[in-house]
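QUALITY CONTROL LOG
STEP: pairwise intake check
CHECKER ROLE: data steward
CRITERIA: each record must contain a sequence immediately followed by its structure tokens, with no blank fields

ENTRY 1 OF 2
RESULT FIELD BELOW
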Amino acid sequence: MLQIQGFVCNFASENTYIIYNENKNAWLIDPGNMNEQETKAIESFITEKDLKIKKIILTHAHIDHILGLQWAFDTYKVPVTMHQDDKEVMDMFQISGMRFGFELDHINVDLEYIKEGDELDFDGEKFQIYHVPGHSPGSVVYHNETQKFMISGDVLFEGSIGRTDLYKGNYEQLIEGIKTKLLILDKETQVFSGHGNPTTIGFEKQYNPFLK
């Protein structure tokens, strides 16, 4: 049985997630920690639960989702899984930092690329990969059909969708991807978003004003 723990990080109130199981194996998703307090909260949880980080996974590479990425890679020494189309977004990390008044170092991590239709295995639990660009070119959603939940990044929120006014954003593309790939899933599927509260596919299908 998979468990999910969230941590709210940085100036954007970004959701960093840890998924873990009874074997104490874990995935760290979108490490957005940017200060000592946020990093300590994540580290303490991993230590207290005696977890072994097996993967670092990105839904996309906007600055608020990767502020703790170098720390995570250096600490847990596992490759970073992401879609190749967001590599150019990651490469803009320092420039993005300057826009917010931050001086940041270039990110140097080992990358493993995934694409639409790939499947990730978590001790027998399968995660389907959906490529849903529009918020960023390489935005992906990780969906576990067995336990009916997804990590949606900034694709889909409670009552909203990801911004499309950023680099290579595309409103029509994002809406099309959500409707054809996510809304067709079981309505009870939980959605753990990159910001804000969890929601469900059924709720968003009925009440999300962007998806009417």
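ENTRY 2 OF 2
RESULT FIELD BELOW
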Amino acid sequence: MIEVVKVWFTEHPSLSVIIKAFTWIVLILLVITWIKLILKKRLPDNSIRYKSQKGVQTVGYILVIFIAVTYFTGNIKDLGLTIGFLTAGITITLQEIILSVAGSFYIFLARVYKPGDRIEINGIKGDVIDIDSVYTTMMEIGEWVSSDNYSGRIVKLSNAFVFKGPVYNYSQDFPFVWDEFNVPVKYGSDVDLTREIVMSVAQEYLTEYIKESVSDWKHVVEKYYIEDAQVEPGLAITMTDNWMQFNLRYIVDYKKRRYTKNLLQEAIVKRIQQTQGKVLLATATFEIVGFPAITIKDERTTGK
């Protein structure tokens, strides 16, 4: 029987080519269908699932056309070439998914961030609440709300973004940030008293952060190529056209930046109000020193 089939294929070479080509086409279509079923089960996002399935389907059609053309022109060489094209096509089509999976391994191995960290990636800032094989899930902060408050939106970002741009981590290695604000004081106020008020308030409310940050910063200096920095509160005075500007720079827990700034400013204002006018806060004011002469001409007295 086998000999009869061999003879029959030898006597009908064209039919043999058609059967072989048809077999490959059916095999490719079955593989494409199988991949689409896997994508349907594994990808929870409807948009990515739809685009991935369409991409695989497009690659399948291209391979079918390629098989048909090369078989009938006699240029196809072997199975390895076909499998190579199939693999390359799938890789190009699913490169975003592949990058996302690779990104999840990179995030874990390089410790780029972990659940609980506050990060900014692809222009979106928030707290990481979950990391899976494809997505990083964040609770967004900012946007239409001020400072570091939650907006209420949960954001899913592809893990592939770790390869496409910078990742800002607010809490890794050093869970503190530097913050600052200005205290405008009128000229004529007691400069030494103002300095004493601002620095005493800073020491009172920031002592805990300073103690905690000293050891953490030493660890950062030992781990990275970076010079030592001052974690104690610093005060700088700038002379402006309207007032003396006292700039307080200090270190604070990254999750308590807004809360701490409010405490400091409220305490400083209360202390200044208790100085009985020795220190006065400044506001933007304008002083009119004179008006230009204005001549009013009455047309009735000119004979017109």
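INTAKE CHECK: passed for both entries
DESCRIPTIVE NOTE, ENTRY 2: Residues 191-223 form the longest helix (33 residues).
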